[in-house]
Amino acid sequence: MDEDNKVVADTRESFGKGAARKLRATGKIPAVVYGHGTEPRHIALPSHQIGLILRKANAVLDLQIDGKSQLALVKDVQKDPVHQVIEHLDLIVIKKGEKVQVEVPVHVEGETAPGTIADLDQHTLSLEAEATHIPENVVVNVEGLEEGTQILAGAVELPKGATLLSDPEALVINVHTPQKVDLGEEAAEAEAEGEATEEAAEAATEEAAE
Hints:
Layout: E1 6-11, H1 17-25, E2 28-35, E3 38-46, H2 47-53, E4 60-65, E5 68-79, E6 86-93, E7 99-109, E8 117-120, E9 124-130, E10 138-141, E11 150-152, E12 163-164, E13 171-176, H3 183-209
Parallel strand pairs: 1-4, 2-6, 7-10
Antiparallel strand pairs: 1-3, 2-3, 4-5, 5-6, 7-9, 8-13, 9-12, 11-13
């Protein structure tokens, strides 16, 4: 567990939009923690620290609530659509050793064969992983892969302890040669159309003068 994910949480007593606005003005984010049969707990978290933690997918927080430690997984992040400021967090209680279902980003590394590109069809994979050992991403190496190579979800190497929940037949990587567009022909056609338009305009001007 990353020490940086230890967050001191304040218990919230006031609710509503006005209270949330005042809270955010003091550098705090309203949040709710629920799960495992516990009553939902309304808390306030330091916004700057949370912003740094949330740069990683599937962040697990070690909440310090009233002096007691509580592990929680970030379930939902609500942001202001204009300013992208975090407005509210939904957190779900987790326990060490239990398995959770998460969406993990796919990271592509390496270069395919010359003249080809690798299209990423699945940006995330659904995995089951231990709550306190959720992988940041799954890595797919495309080094030297030839045109026509396809990598399915079932062939992706998963981090230790993780199990694939996505369809194993889902296409993740497709290696192909990008289509070439002959700009020369298109430019010639556009030029010819332009000349024809100019000739028509000149003819119309001459007719009007006569």
